[in-house]
Amino acid sequence: MAETTETTRTVNGAPVPVPGVYDLDIAHSSVAFVVRHLMVSKVRGTFHGFDGTITVAQDPTESGVTATVQVATVDTRDEKRDAHLRSPDFFDAETFPAMTFTSTRVLPAGGTDWKVEGDLTIHGVTRSVVLDVEFNGGTGDPYGGTRIGFSASTEIDREDFGMTFNMALETGGVMVSKVVRIEIEAEAILQA
């Protein structure tokens, strides 16, 4: 008979992962962003180089997250635009090769929802942000491991991080919006 491993537990009526240290499975995770272009459409991009660790504490509010994204791996499906994003006008990937997130507080927001506050550093500037996080559940994998999944999002003003490049449009508005939506899908594996 196969051994059954619990992957989640209930704390204050909410499902949460079992305690432990989980490393992101980058093959099954994504870090993406959405920004308005010319005020009429939205451009989506992703980063292919990232890693992270989720530490789930016995008391979920004492849990923590750290993540690093290599900005030179930005991909908007347009090499010219990607090169511009890597330039000093935006990420300045040569000077600031990574953006980082380190959580400072985890708060329940009802059911499977959480607020994860933390320090986000982009372009050498650190600002406090709040991620809206949904715990998608846990499961055992075919290899005897334990996996958990989360979806997270937030909005930032890129100018708060020193990325002020823009162009005014003759018809009003600007080429690129200041507001950037960050969207994360995370699958993580419990470490032995």
Q: Mind sketching the topology for me?
A:
Elements: E1 8-11, E2 14-17, E3 20-24, E4 30-37, E5 41-47, E6 50-56, E7 64-70, E8 74-75, H1 79-86, E9 98-108, E10 113-122, E11 125-140, E12 146-157, E13 176-190
Explain what the structure shows.
- This protein has a single domain (19-190), classed as Beta Barrel (Lipocalin), CATH 2.40.128.110.
- It has one helix at residues 79-86, and strands spanning 8-11, 14-17, 20-24, 30-37, 41-47, 50-56, 64-70, 74-75, 98-108, 113-122, 125-140, 146-157, 176-190.
- 4% of the residues lie in helices and 56% in strands.
- By secondary structure, the protein is mainly beta.
- The two termini are 22 Å apart.
Could you provide a short overview of the structure?
By secondary structure, the protein is mainly beta. It has one helix at 79-86; strands at 8-11, 14-17, 20-24, 30-37, 41-47, 50-56, 64-70, 74-75, 98-108, 113-122, 125-140, 146-157, 176-190. It has a single domain, classed as Lipocalin, CATH 2.40.128.
Could you list some keywords that capture this structure?
single chain, 192 residues, mainly beta, Lipocalin, eight-stranded antiparallel beta barrel, elongated
- Total helix count? 1
Q: How do the strands of the widest beta sheet line up side by side? A: 3-6-7-9-10-11-12-13
CATH C-level name: Mainly Beta
* CATH architectural grouping: Beta Barrel
Number of domains: 1
Count of individual beta strands: 13
Mean pLDDT: 91
**Low-confidence runs:** none
**H/E order of the elements?**
EEEEEEEEHEEEEE
Helix content: under 10%
What's the CATH H-level superfamily name?
A: Lipid/polyisoprenoid-binding, YceI-like
Shape category: elongated
Distance between the termini: 22 Å
Describe the main β-sheet briefly. 8 strands, antiparallel, barrel
- The class by helix and strand makeup works out as mainly beta
Which percent band covers the strand fraction? over 45%
Classify the oligomer. Answer: single chain
CATH-assigned fold name: Lipocalin
Whole-number radius of gyration? Answer: 18 Å
